[in-house]
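Help needed: design a sequence for this.
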C-alpha cells in the first residue's frame, strides 16, 4: 500500500491559507482512491491516479498570480510544471511524474480521454465539484449522462445525489 502522507503535507503547505483548496484535493483523492480500487486498477495505475488526485489543482495558485483567475485552461497550462517540480523533489519515478503531469494538464479536458486514470480523476473531481458548487439537479444529471463512464463513479454519483437511472 502506497503512503501519500508526505505529498499531502507538501500540497497542504503549497495551498496554505486556502483551506477550500486543501479540503477539495483531499476529497478528490478519497473518491479517486475508492473508484480506482473498485474498478480494479493495477497497482501502478492506482498509484498514478492517487498521486494525480492529490496534485490535480496545483495550477490554481500560479493561475491566480499570473492570470488573476483559476480558469480550468489556466490550471491545465500552469499545473504540469508545478506538479513535476514537486514530485521530482519528493523522489517520484520519472515515468510516474510524466503521467501525473499529463493528467494535471488535462483534468479539465472531458473529451479524448487519455485512459482509465484520466477518466477516474475527472469523475472524482466532478463528484466533489458538483457538491461544492451546489450544482442543480439538471447539472448533476447532465454530468451523469455525459461525463461519467465507470460503474463505480456512476454508482457514487447516483448515491450522493439520489439519482435514479
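Sure. Designed sequence:
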Amino acid at each position: 500500500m502506497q503512503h501519500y502522507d508526505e505529498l499531502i503535507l507538501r500540497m497542504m503547505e503549497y495551498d496554505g491559507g486556502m483551506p477550500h483548496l486543501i479540503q477539495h484535493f483531499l476529497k478528490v483523492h478519497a473518491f479517486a482512491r475508492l473508484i480506482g480500487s473498485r474498478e480494479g486498477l493495477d497497482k501502478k495505475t492506482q498509484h498514478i491516479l492517487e498521486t494525480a488526485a492529490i496534485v490535480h489543482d496545483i495550477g490554481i495558485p500560479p493561475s491566480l498570480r499570473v492570470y488573476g483567475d483559476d480558469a480550468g485552461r489556466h490550471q491545465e497550462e500552469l499545473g504540469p510544471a508545478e506538479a513535476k517540480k514537486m514530485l521530482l523533489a519528493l523522489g517520484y519515478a520519472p515515468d510516474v511524474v510524466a503521467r501525473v503531469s499529463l493528467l494535471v494538464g488535462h483534468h479539465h479536458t472531458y473529451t479524448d480521454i487519455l485512459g482509465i486514470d484520466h477518466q477516474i480523476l475527472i469523475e472524482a473531481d466532478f463528484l466533489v465539484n458538483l457538491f461544492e458548487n451546489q450544482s442543480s439537479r439538471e447539472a448533476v444529471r447532465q454530468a451523469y449522462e455525459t461525463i461519467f463512464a465507470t460503474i463505480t463513479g456512476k454508482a457514487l454519483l447516483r448515491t450522493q445525489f439520489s439519482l435514479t437511472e
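DSSP finds nine helices and no strands in the chain.
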